[in-house]
Amino acid sequence: MEISGFVALYIFMLAAFTGYEVISKVPVILHTPLMSGSNFVHGIVLVGTMVALGHAQTPLEQAIGFIAVILAAGNAAGGYVVTERMLEMFKSSKDDKGDKA
Fold first, then answer.
1. CB of 56 within 8 A of CB of 65?
2. 49, 65 in Cβ contact below 8 A?
3. What keywords would UniProt list here (predicted)?
4. Which phi and psi (to 5°) does residue 4 adopt?
5. Residues 6+ apart with CB under 8 A from 33
């Protein structure tokens, strides 16, 4: 089943609008835990972009697919970096107490 360009653009715009509306309703204090808790979604997006790139036929589709894979990989890696930084905030500082003079 082939999706026309108009339908694909419509689906993309609808998804972008829905995503913006959902994220804008989340309080600022919950953005970091929300992002770190959804790292698996970033992985699914990365797999989806690789599958889409595999089905690309024209050079334009391949270029857009390549950019999508790069952005999805950066998004997934960034989610894990944010999680690591957030977990660092909860570690106790027992070593720092003895070093200060």
1. yes
2. yes
3. Cell inner membrane, Cell membrane, Membrane, NAD, NADP, Translocase, Transmembrane, Transmembrane helix
4. -70, 160
5. 86
Q: Whole-angstrom Cα distance, residue 42 to residue 72? A: 7
- Full DSSP string of the chain: -PPPHHHHHHHHHHHHHHHHHHHHTS-GGGHHHHHHHTHHHHHHHHHHHHHHHHT--SHHHHHHHHHHHHHHHHHHHHHHHHHHHHHHHTS--HHHHHH--
Which residue carries 């977990």 as its tokens?
87
Q: CB neighbours (10 Å) of residue 65? A: 18
Task: For residue 56, give the nearest of 48, 65, 67 by alpha carbon.
Answer: 65
User: What's the pLDDT at 27?
Assistant: 74
